[in-house]
Every structure is written in C-alpha cells, then in structure tokens.
Specification:
single chain; about 50 residues; about 75% helix
C-alpha cells in the first residue's frame, strides 16, 4: 500500500506532468517549459 505522500510525489513530479502534457497534444518545447516552471514554482515547495 502506498502513502498519500508518495502518490502525490509521483503525480506532481515534473516528468509526470511533462508526459501528461505531451499525451494531451502539447508541443515538446512548450511542455518542457511548463513542467520546468511547475518544478521551480510549485513542486519544490509543495513536497520539500
């Protein structure tokens, strides 16, 4: 059984976000920029 924290770490991981954006049809460069911003602005602060 996985914890809520580990599930959040997976779902909110910038690489996971990038993959989901690509699967929704977003261009590579845009998805990289969005996931990079996501990592810097939110991810590091949420799960640190």
């Amino acid at each position: 059984m996985t914890s809520i924290r580990s599930r959040l770490q997976h779902r909110l991981n910038p690489l996971h976000v990038y993959c989901r954006l690509r699967s929704l049809g977003m261009a590579h460069r845009t998805a990289v920029m969005v996931s990079s911003c996501w990592e810097r602005a939110l991810y590091r602060h949420i799960l640190s």
